[in-house]
Design a protein that fits this description.
heterodimer, A: alpha/beta, about 45% helix, B: about 120 residues, five-stranded antiparallel sheet, 5 strands, about 30% helix
């Protein structure tokens, strides 16, 4: 039984739900751990619980601001996530080797996207591409259809260039967490096989936390 | 033949009946929710995700639902066609609210018989 991780969850103070409640529910659902990635803030008081990681989701419109924020948080938090969506930010995120995850590259309603160049950058820089399954839960009809086709397109490129990928819930409350098996079923809607979904929920998150795809790490291993 | 044929005539022998799966699921909700409203939401989610054609193959029906003590959630049993469990699971996962009450649904166990659901 692999260890599952949900790497993008929002908790108090951004939302009303405390991180400890989310973690205990996630554990009951079968996760080994979750990462709290609030927008542009991180709590230092939290990382005492086992299985609870701290990260930050950088949300900005300008590339200079993004680079400044990545530099500011780099080394301080376990996980640097970039709030994607616009083409400019997506590009800046996958080109930056200190970014760990590009969250929802096709936006929350399918307005953005990634092309072959960006996915290749993501693979080279070890930036994980996130499939935000919460968007499939919260949208219906035309929005969901657009999202599904955008995500399929990205999945095709991710498979071709072997970029790391993640499946996340972006939960803002207890009611938005989904158990691993439910996540597999939702990921199957995009076209992920059970093995791929399993990897996106266990191997890839573990690798991202261990910075397995980062350049410095590779050099260390070779030495 | 009379329009009101007794239902007994429509029963198939066990060997010819279609195979089914029973899903034991738990609901985490803000407040207590009604069984029929939950079924309506499950079917809406299924129709929205797979359309009328896909939903007709799943043959979903809510057998039982009861609120647990404390009223923060409930448990229920859902029946579906045996080859469509993953589709039903996906449409259960797509439910975010029932009647403006936020909910999260998780399938605990699946089985071919109701009896198999109780450990």
């Amino acid at each position: 039984m692999p260890l599952f991780y949900d790497l993008i969850v929002h908790a108090h103070p951004e939302t009303e739900t405390p991180a400890a409640d989310l973690l205990s529910l996630a554990r009951r659902y079968g996760y080994a751990g979750i990462a709290i990635t609030n927008h542009d803030q991180f709590c230092e008081a939290q990382p005492t619980l086992p299985g609870l990681f701290t990260g930050v989701e950088i949300q900005t419109e300008s590339v200079t601001e993004l680079k400044r924020a990545v530099k500011h948080y780099g080394g301080k938090v376990a996980l640097v996530v970039v709030h994607g969506g616009s083409e400019k930010i997506n590009r800046a995120a996958v080109e930056h080797p200190r970014v760990d995850v590009l969250a929802h590259p096709c936006g929350e309603k399918g307005e953005g996207g990634l092309n072959h160049v960006l996915v290749r950058y993501a693979a080279a820089n070890g930036v994980a591409i996130d499939f935000n399954l919460d968007a499939l839960i919260h949208t219906r009809r035309a929005d969901r259809a657009r999202l599904l086709s955008k995500m399929r397109e990205i999945l095709r490129l991710v498979r071709k260039y072997h970029a790391p990928m993640l499946v996340t819930s972006h939960a803002h409350s207890l009611y938005e967490l989904r158990a691993p098996r439910e996540m597999f079923a939702l990921a199957a809607l995009i076209g992920l096989s059970t093995e791929e979904a399993r990897a996106a929920l266990s191997d890839f998150p573990a690798g991202i936390m261990a910075k397995r795809w980062k350049k410095e790490r590779e050099v260390e291993v070779l030495d | 033949m009379h329009a009101l044929t007794p239902l007994l005539l429509l029963y198939l022998p066990p060997s010819l009946r279609e195979r089914r799966r029973y899903l034991l699921f738990e609901v985490l909700s803000e407040r207590a929710i009604d069984k029929w409203e939950l079924l309506k939401e499950i079917l809406d989610s299924l129709y929205s995700l797979y359309g009328d054609l896909g939903a007709s193959e799943s043959k979903v029906w809510l057998i039982e639902y009861h609120t647990l003590d404390g009223a923060t959630g409930g448990q229920g049993i859902l029946r579906c066609a045996h080859q469509h469990v993953e589709e039903v699971r996906a449409s259960l996962a797509c439910i975010h609210s029932v009647n403006n009450v936020r909910v999260g649904i998780r399938v605990i166990r699946t089985s071919g018989t109701m009896k198999g659901l109780s450990p």
